[in-house]
């Protein structure tokens, strides 16, 4: 069995294990706006990290904003690699697209399929980039587990919804983690990353 065949088999294993309730749950898990309250909570946690050090409010806000921008830069880099480079270069059709020749057997939720190509998953890359960056910043086990759990759940939802193969989300996760590691290391070299 080839890697591509294994990817398709694993895809159907996840995509065909569906129910009406899970369809709705996974559909909303995959929506970026749903995570806005979590993002606000994480921003508050970053702010509190600086609050515990007795910094003045203006300095806490400045440092918090800097870290938000850096997390965004990590996700932006991951998104650029997946959306602007890999998808148009590799041109692997999403499983839900007619061109994939799997459409008749793919479970699609609410008729949503997304763009033409799916390798690699931008959703997954972005979530894992932010999760990795926050792991460096917050360094609290419970928050790290939560962030990576949310990223993994989002990755799973993309396969469940029929818009990505497992290989797409696995590659996206690796890219997201690598982008955050790169930015973190570059900032460490320039002594710009806060301890």
Would you kindly provide a brief summary of this structure?
With 195 residues, the protein is an all-alpha fold. It contains seven helices and no strands.
The tally of helices reads: 7
Number of domains: 1
Structural class: mainly alpha
- What distance lies between the first and last C-alpha atoms, to the nearest angstrom? 47 Å
Q: N-to-C SSE series?
A: HHHHHHH
Largest sheet data: none
- By CATH, the topology is Vanadium-containing Chloroperoxidase, domain 1
CATH architecture term: Up-down Bundle
Strand fraction equals under 5%
Query: Count the strands?
Result: 0
Q: What is the helical fraction, as a range of percent? A: 55-70%
Could you please describe the fold and organization of this structure?
This protein is an all-alpha fold and 195 residues long. It has a single domain, classed as Vanadium-containing Chloroperoxidase, domain 1 (Up-down Bundle), CATH 1.20.144. Helix content is 69%, strand content 0%. It contains seven helices and no strands. It has helices spanning 3-15, 20-29, 36-51, 57-90, 122-138, 141-160, 166-189. It is elongated.
What key attributes describe this structure?
7 helices; Vanadium-containing Chloroperoxidase, domain 1; elongated; 195 residues; mainly alpha; 0% strand
Secondary structure blueprint with pairings:
Blueprint: H1 3-15, H2 20-29, H3 36-51, H4 57-90, H5 122-138, H6 141-160, H7 166-189
Helix pairs in contact: 2-6, 3-4, 4-5, 4-7, 5-6, 5-7, 6-7
């Amino acid at each position: 069995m080839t890697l591509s065949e294994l990817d398709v088999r694993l895809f159907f294993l996840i995509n065909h294990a569906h129910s009406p309730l899970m369809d709705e749950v996974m559909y909303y898990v995959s929506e970026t706006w749903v995570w806005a309250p979590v993002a606000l909570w994480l921003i508050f946690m970053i702010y509190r990290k600086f609050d515990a050090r007795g910094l003045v409010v203006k300095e806490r806000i400045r440092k918090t904003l800097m870290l938000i921008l850096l997390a965004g830069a990590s996700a932006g880099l991951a998104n650029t690699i997946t959306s602007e480079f890999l998808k148009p270069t590799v041109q692997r059709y999403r499983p839900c697209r007619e061109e994939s020749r799997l459409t008749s057997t793919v479970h699609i939720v609410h008729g949503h399929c997304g763009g033409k190509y799916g390798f690699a998953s931008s959703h997954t890359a972005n979530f894992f980039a932010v999760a990795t960056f926050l792991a460096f910043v917050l360094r609290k086990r419970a928050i790290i587990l939560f962030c990576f759990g949310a990223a993994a759940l989002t990755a799973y939802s993309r396969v469940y919804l029929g818009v990505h193969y497992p290989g797409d989300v696995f590659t996206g996760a690796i890219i997201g983690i690598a982008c955050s590691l790169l930015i973190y290391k570059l900032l460490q070299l320039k002594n710009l990353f806060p301890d």
